[in-house]
Write a structure and sequence with these properties.
By secondary structure, this protein is mainly β. 8% of the residues lie in helices and 43% in strands. The longest helix has 9 residues. The radius of gyration is 15 Å and the shape is globular. The two termini are 20 Å apart.
């Protein structure tokens, strides 16, 4: 199937990688981050001296995947074509954050989606 000019232009202009920086448990940027399909990588860089749980969820009912985000460390997530994830930065000891909540009381420790 042929790709349209607009679709080709979008694929060419998307970066191969992006970095989301965590400081005081808050992600920046915390909105949508998009990278190139297939080779796209999102780096979560923790600037804090404490470790966190990085939770990736596709839907609100999805249990998600938890990964360790080490103190002062980086976790890289590879995004495949048409993939999209929301994420939460959670205290390592536990807790819940819902990246699908909307409104003025939204938790500042959530973000996304990350997509290609």
């Amino acid at each position: 199937m042929a790709t349209t000019g607009a679709a080709k232009a979008k694929q060419m202009t998307l970066p191969r990688s992006a970095t989301i920086t965590i400081s005081k448990q808050k992600p920046s940027p915390n909105g949508e981050v998009e990278v190139a399909p297939e080779s796209g990588r999102i780096h979560f860089k923790n600037k804090d001296n404490r470790e966190y749980r990085l939770r990736l969820q596709k839907t609100e009912t999805d249990a998600g995947i938890d990964m360790l985000l080490p103190a002062g460390g980086t976790v890289t997530v590879v995004i495949k074509k048409d993939d999209a994830w929301h994420y939460s930065v959670i205290d390592i000891k536990g807790g819940e954050a819902n990246p699908f909540r909307k409104g003025p009381d939204v938790d500042p420790f959530i973000g996304g989606p990350i997509r290609n």
